[in-house]
Amino acid sequence: MDWDDWDDSAPDTAAAAAGAAERLVDAGADGDDQAVEAALRPKNLGEFVGQERVREQLDLVLRAARQRGATADHVLLSGAPGLGKTTLSMIIAAEMAAPIRITSGPAIQHAGDLAAILSSLTEGEVLFLDEIHRMSRPAEEMLYMAMEDFRVDVIVGKGPGATAIPLELPPFTLVGATTRAGLLPPPLRDRFGFTAHMEFYGPAELERVLHRSARLLEVEIEPAGAAEIAGRSRGTPRIANRLLRRVRDYAQVKADGVITREIAESALGVYEVDGRGLDRLDRAVLGALLKLFGGGPVGLSTLAVAVGEERETVEEVAEPFLVREGLLARTPRGRVATPAAWEHLGLRPPGQDTGGSAQQGLFGV
C-alpha cells in the first residue's frame, strides 16, 4: 500500500467540482451550460444522437406502456456526466405525454423532503432524481415503498406516541440518474424496471451532435471542423457543445464565422485543449509525473502538491480521463505514467536515453 495515498475519508467531490469549475473540458454543467442545453436538447428519441442500444430498449419500454395505457416502469440511468441522462429523462416524459419534476439526491436529506415531493405528484408524472446515490438513507428507505407499492408512511409525533399514517400515491415513473451506480444499495437498484448504462460517444457520433447543434446555433461548420472538435471532446456531447460555442466565438471575431479545421485548431489552441482533449490541468499532472518523478510510481498527495492542486481535484477531475486514455495507471505503489504519456508530451523515458540525453529526457520540455 502507498501510505502517501492513505486517506480515511471519502473524496470531497464538492471540492473536486470547485476545482473543475473553470475547465473548458469539465463534463459538469454550470448555469450557462444548462441554458444552452435547454435550447439544444433533443425533444424525442428520434432526435437523440448516439446510445443506440439504450434508445432501442427504452423505445420498447415506452411504447409498451403507452399501448397498455399504463405508467412506464421506473428507469435507472448510469454513466459519466454529460452523456445525456437528463435529456433522456425529459424525453421519457415527452414520449409519455406526462409532466416532469426535477430534483437531486443532495437536495433530499430528510424523509420529509421526499414525502413532500411524492405527495404532490400527479398520476403518470415523471420524477427525475439526479445523483440518486447521494440521497440520505432515511429518504432512500421511504423510496422503496413508494416505488413498489405507491405508498409512503408518514410518521406523526415522536417517541412512544409516534403514529405512522399511510399515504397513497398516484402511479408515477421515477427516473434515477447516477454517475456511481456501485454506490446504490441493491434493494433500491432492484426496484427499477429498466436500467441502462450510458457509454462514451465515438468521434462519428460526436460529429453528428456538432452538426445538429451548429444548425440550431445558426453556425456554419465544415465536416473537417466538426471532426477536429469531436476529436478533442473526450467522448462527451456536453463538452463537444461547449467547445463548439468557444470555437464559434473565435470564428466570429478572428475569421469570417465559418468553422473550418484550421479555425478549430487555432481556437482550441487558444483555450489550451490539445489534440487528444487534454487541457492545462491534465498536461500539468502528466508533466509533473514525467519530469519530476521519472514516470512514477508516485503518491497522489505528492503529485497534487507538485501541480499546485487539491488532492481531490487531481483524483476526481484529471485522473479519470487520463486513465481512460491510457496515459496514466493507478497501482498499489502510486501513479505511473504509461509509454503513451511519454509519447504524447514528446519525451523519452530515462531508460531509452543514452549519455547526456537521459537528463534532458527526464527534465526537458
From TrEMBL:
Its EC number is 3.6.4.-. SUPFAM superfamilies: P-loop containing nucleoside triphosphate hydrolases, Winged helix' DNA-binding domain. The keyword DNA repair applies. Mg(2+) binds at T86. Pfam families: AAA_lid_4 (PF17864), RuvB_N (PF05496), WHD_RuvB (PF05491). Residues 275-365 are annotated as: Head domain (RuvB-H). Residues 202-272 are annotated as: Small ATPAse domain (RuvB-S). GO terms for molecular function: DNA helicase activity; hydrolase activity. Residues 355-365 have a biased composition (Polar residues). Keywords: ATP-binding, Cytoplasm, DNA damage, DNA recombination, DNA repair, DNA-binding, Helicase, Hydrolase, Nucleotide-binding. It is an enzyme of class 3 (hydrolase). The keyword Hydrolase applies. Residues 21-201 are annotated as: Large ATPase domain (RuvB-L). DNA binds at R311, R330, R335. The RuvA-RuvB-RuvC complex processes Holliday junction (HJ) DNA during genetic recombination and DNA repair, while the RuvA-RuvB complex plays an important role in the rescue of blocked DNA replication forks via replication fork reversal (RFR). RuvA specifically binds to HJ cruciform DNA, conferring on it an open structure. The RuvB hexamer acts as an ATP-dependent pump, pulling dsDNA into and through the RuvAB complex. RuvB forms 2 homohexamers on either side of HJ DNA bound by 1 or 2 RuvA tetramers; 4 subunits per hexamer contact DNA at a time. PANTHER family: HOLLIDAY JUNCTION BRANCH MIGRATION COMPLEX SUBUNIT RUVB, PTHR42848. Has 3 domains, the large (RuvB-L) and small ATPase (RuvB-S) domains and the C-terminal head (RuvB-H) domain. The head domain binds DNA, while the ATPase domains jointly bind ATP, ADP or are empty depending on the state of the subunit in the translocation cycle. During a single DNA translocation step the structure of each domain remains the same, but their relative positions change. Belongs to the RuvB family. Homohexamer. Forms an RuvA(8)-RuvB(12)-Holliday junction (HJ) complex. HJ DNA is sandwiched between 2 RuvA tetramers; dsDNA enters through RuvA and exits via RuvB. An RuvB hexamer assembles on each DNA strand where it exits the tetramer. Each RuvB hexamer is contacted by two RuvA subunits (via domain III) on 2 adjacent RuvB subunits; this complex drives branch migration. In the full resolvosome a probable DNA-RuvA(4)-RuvB(12)-RuvC(2) complex forms which resolves the HJ. This is Holliday junction branch migration complex subunit RuvB. The gene is ruvB.
